[in-house]
Each structure stands twice: as C-alpha cells, then as structure tokens.
Amino acid sequence: MDDDDQIQLQKLEQRTNWDGWRIVKYQGFWCPLPFFRPVLSAQKYFKAKDSDIILSSLPKSGTTWLKALTFSIANRNIDTQSPLLTCNPHEVVPFLELNLYLNQENPDLEQTSTPRILATHIPFDSLPDSIPNSGCKIIYICRNPMDQFISFRHFSLDNKFGEKDRRAGPLELDEAFDMFCDGAHHYGPFCEHMIGYWNAHLKNPDKVLFLKYEDLKDDIALHVRKIAEFIGCPFSLEEEERGLVEEISRVCSFDNLKNLEVNKNGYYSVNGIVKNSSYFRKGEVGDWANHLNPAMAERMEKLIKSKLQGTGLTL
Ligand code: A3P
C-alpha cells in the first residue's frame, strides 16, 4: 500500500466483524481489511475487455456454483478434460480482489485466455470503472440473506477465520446477527449490495444478469440456458439433443462437486488456507430455520421489506 492509500485507510471507519476480521468502511461498504489494498489496486488497474464475464455476489450466495456453471457453459468442456474435476471452482475462476490483486498490485492479465471469467464481491458502485464502462457482461447471484448469514457463519467458524486477530472467541449467534442486520459484515450492507446490482440490471438487462440462488435450485436447466444466452453462446439444437444442458447441470451440481476428491480433501489459499469442503456444506434453501429463532426471522423480514420497498426486487 502506498502512502496515499495508508492515509486514506487511516481516515476510514473500522470495526471488528463477529468472527474477528477487521472490516473497513470504504465507499459505503464494509471491506475486509486484507482486501482493502487489493480493491484499490483493482479499481486503479483493472481494464475490462468487452469479452470479459464478471461474476459478482456477496460471499456465500452461490458463487462457487455460478463459477462452475459459467466456466462449463463458456468452455463447453465437461468431459474428462474439465479442470473442475481436479480443481476447486475458485481456482478455475479467480476473484479480482481475493486472488489476482491480492498477490500483485498490478498483475498482467493480458495472457489469460478469452473469454476471461473473473469474480468479485465488490458492490456495483465500487467496481473498477472499466467494468460498467466496457461491453463486458456481469452475472450477479443473490440469496436469501438469512441463509447467506448462516452459510457464512459456518464457513468462517469451520476455517477458523479471524482467529489469529481475535482476543476472545467469536461472538455468539445473536450478537453476530445484530451486526449482520446493521450491515456490518463482509461486503455489507447486504441489501444495498443487492439493490446496486438490481438497479444496474434494470437499467441495462443485456449488461447485468440478476440471478437468485433459490431460482437456480428450483430449475437449473432453465438457468443454464439463460446464462448461455446471456453470454452469447446459446445451446445449438445438436447440443440440446445430446443433453449438454443436463450434463452441465449434473457436473456442476452440489452432490457431484462435493464428492470430488479435490473438494473433499483439498485446500484453497485466499489470505489464509480454506478447506475446499467448506464451500460445499448443505446446499439447501431455508437452512436458516434450523438456526435462527422466529423473532430473528421477523426482524429480518421487516428489514428486507423496508429496504427493498419501491425497488421491485423481491427475495
Ligand atoms: P450452505 O452453507 O448453505 O450449504 P459461495 O459459493 O458463495 O461461497 O456459497 C456457498 C454456499 O453455496 C454454501 O451454502 C454451499 O453449500 C452452496 N453451494 C456450493 N456449491 C453448490 C452447488 N453446486 N449447488 C448448490 N449449492 C452450492
């Protein structure tokens, strides 16, 4: 980080997330501190190409699934050659701020084969300028915030996130939920994150595809076709007839990916070591009901209703 970035950081509000990670409020969102400099670098240096496909989400909204699907749809390689059979989807589709710009301030991304499929958790309004301003495509996936919160809690505890910076144990579920409702969580506030991409989708639906995790669970084949059309490579009649849509859906399914050796026993490096298995926990809709009480759910429903009022977005 150069001196100007340091000075900027010192002026920003910081908090400690319930799991011990420091988060810093930058451009209206809570950026995890280790990714603050990489976010600045991506904003400064990333040059989107018209052929790029950018996958965006809040953590634990179905990013891994979307990466596997988009990669398979764009490359049509789901046979024994697919890298998804031996690599975690996060190794196949890197994040801007969690991987590429974390490791180097200005990495050379020119050699990456096209279309470049890249991911980010950065809110729409804070994306590097070249993303909204170029012809590249953005696919956003959102999820019921209560499922997303519970998913993140398991993921963070499973990987012992924040442990080295923490003096006491992680906050209890109710305190963590309070922080989440206040929007103080990784890349939060969650409603603003979704609304940013929702509005961008309404403004330019050819540029931003807006997906919901629950809809993919409901009808994956429909969404595989939708993603293919959106990125400009719809399935041909011949591909439809030989069942490619169903095959991509199967290869990228929770059960298939979860049971691959690499995802059972492998590790992934993202500012620390993460178990690949922690990206495949339950993969269900509505698991929040096993963890949050009715009062918490009511609070969340009211919050969502007030925040989304007038946007046209429903969760
Ligand atoms: P749960 O913790 O509720 O099981 P992300 O990929 O954004 O990190 O989100 C992880 C969540 O998506 C986890 O939710 C995980 O189980 C689920 N998930 C991962 N791969 C999936 C797949 N292929 N199909 C459906 N859900 C998947």
Q: What average pLDDT do the residues reach?
A: 95
Percent helix, as a range, is 40-55%
Assembly form of the protein: single chain
Q: Give helix and strand order, one letter per element, not per position.
A: HEEEHEHHHEHEHHHEHHHHHHEEH
Give the count of helical stretches.
16
Q: Structural class of the helices, strands and pairings?
A: alpha/beta
Q: Which sequence of strands runs across the widest sheet?
A: 5-4-6-7
Q: How would a crystallographer describe the biggest sheet?
A: 4 strands, parallel
As for the CATH topology, it is Rossmann fold
Rough outline: globular
CATH superfamily: P-loop containing nucleotide triphosphate hydrolases
Cofactors, ions, other ligands: adenosine-3'-5'-diphosphate
Domain Sulfotransferase: 50-312
GO cellular component, one term: cytoplasm
Keywords: Transferase
GO molecular function: sulfotransferase activity
Structural account:
The chain has 16 helices and nine strands. It has 315 residues and is α/β, with parallel strands linked by helices. The chain has a single domain (14-308), classed as P-loop containing nucleotide triphosphate hydrolases (Rossmann fold), CATH 3.40.50. It has a four-stranded parallel sheet with strand order 5-4-6-7, with helices on both faces. Strands 1-2-3 form a three-stranded antiparallel sheet, with no helix packed on it. Helix 11 (220-230) packs across helix 13. The N and C termini lie far apart (38 Å). Bound molecules: adenosine-3'-5'-diphosphate. Adenosine-3'-5'-diphosphate is lined by residues 57, 59-65, 147, 151, 154, 252-254, 257, 279-283, 287. InterPro entries: P-loop_NTPase, Sulfotransferase_dom. This is Sulfotransferase. Its EC number is 2.8.2.-. GO terms for molecular function: sulfotransferase activity.
